[in-house]
Design a protein that fits this description.
single chain; 172 residues; alpha/beta; six-stranded mixed sheet; 6 strands; globular; binds guanosine-5'-diphosphate; binds magnesium ion
């Protein structure tokens, strides 16, 4: 099959599940429901006969490092999510970024990563857009600020992934 597996990673509470829910179901919940691991399957457009976009929504918890590692090993593209309201959540992405590079190699064409600063609707910020963009350029990856709550850049984020999937180099 031509399935394309996207893995969503980041600390607890940054809005990983909210982003996936927003895109898959079109809604938003204020309540926090801890995730262990959920997978979603979205059929891709008609140009992809049998393919689907698999989204693995992971947990940030230390107890689930094994699951995280397995999800990364099987992934084709990665969304690294932090919250612009909490600087620590950006710093916590570094070991995950390094694990992706370790398991998948250094070729950004073969293994696309999108750095996402979520909760950009919040007025209390600890991370500026400029600072997020600087991390992204250091890590050689794409960058977007999003809000699952206000539906900002969520379509753009997943469209970016679908575009990666269309490039043959990414489909290996
Ligand atoms: P996860 O642990 O990364 O999956 O985080 P969740 O998706 O469960 O979200 C954690 C909390 O942040 C919930 O209370 C959400 O309602 C809230 N949240 C998620 N996305 C946003 C957002 O874009 N803006 C704001 N203001 N809150 C958000
Ligand atoms: Mg979650």
């Amino acid at each position: 099959s031509r399935d394309f597996r996207v893995v969503v990673l980041g600390s607890a509470g940054v809005g990983k599940s909210a982003l996936v829910q927003r895109w898959v179901r079109g809604n938003f919940r204020e309540a926090y429901l801890p995730t262990i691991e959920d997978t979603y399957r979205q059929a891709l457009g008609c140009s992809h006969k049998a393919g689907a976009l698999h989204i693995t929504d992971t947990t940030g918890g230390r107890r689930y490092r094994g699951l995280q590692r397995l999800a990364i090993a099987r992934g084709h593209a990665f969304i690294l999510v932090y919250s612009v309201t909490k600087k620590q959540t950006l710093e916590e992405l570094k070991p995950l970024y390094e694990l992706i590079r370790q398991l998948k190699g250094n070729n950004p064409q073969k293994c696309p990563i999108i750095l996402v600063g979520n909760k950009c609707d919040e007025s209390h910020r600890e991370v500026s857009e400029k600072e997020g963009a600087a991390y992204a350029s250091e890590w050689n990856c794409a960058f977007l600020e999003t809000s699952a709550k206000m539906n900002i850049n969520v379509q753009e984020l997943f469209q970016m992934l679908i575009n990666f999937e269309k490039k043959p180099a990414a489909a290996t």
